[in-house]
C-alpha cells in the first residue's frame, strides 16, 4: 500500500499543505492551513465547524470520478461549505483554487 504524501500549494502569497492519503481504491485529499481546508467528499465539514474551523468539500472536475490529486482538488468545484468557510467568502460552485484563495 502506498503511503501518505504532502505537497505545498501556493495560492498567491498563501501556502497550504495538500495531503493525499491512499485509502483502498481511492485517495483522501485535502489542502489546509491554519485558516481553513478544502477537501474531497470524505471530509466532514460539519464536524470541523463545531471547532470553528472553515472547511469545504469539493466535487471532482468534469471527466473525473474522484479527487485523486492536488490538481483535481484545485480544479474541482465546491459542493458544500460550513458556516465558518461561508463567513470567509467560500461559495458553492467556486473552484478549489478560488476557495483556498479566500480562506488563506
From TrEMBL:
Report the domain of life of the source organism.
Archaea
**Designated name of the protein:** YunC family protein
Q: Which organism is it from?
A: Methanogenium marinum
Amino acid at each position: 500500500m502506498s503511503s501518505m504524501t504532502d505537497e505545498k500549494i501556493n495560492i498567491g502569497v498563501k501556502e497550504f499543505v495538500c495531503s493525499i492519503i491512499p485509502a483502498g481504491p481511492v485517495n483522501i485529499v485535502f489542502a489546509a492551513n491554519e485558516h481553513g481546508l478544502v477537501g474531497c467528499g470524505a471530509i466532514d465539514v460539519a464536524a470541523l465547524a463545531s471547532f470553528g474551523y472553515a472547511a469545504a468539500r469539493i466535487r471532482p472536475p468534469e471527466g473525473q470520478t474522484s479527487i485523486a490529486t492536488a490538481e483535481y482538488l484545485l480544479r474541482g468545484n465546491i459542493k458544500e461549505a460550513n458556516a465558518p468557510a461561508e463567513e470567509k467568502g467560500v461559495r458553492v460552485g467556486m473552484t478549489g483554487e478560488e476557495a483556498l484563495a479566500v480562506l488563506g
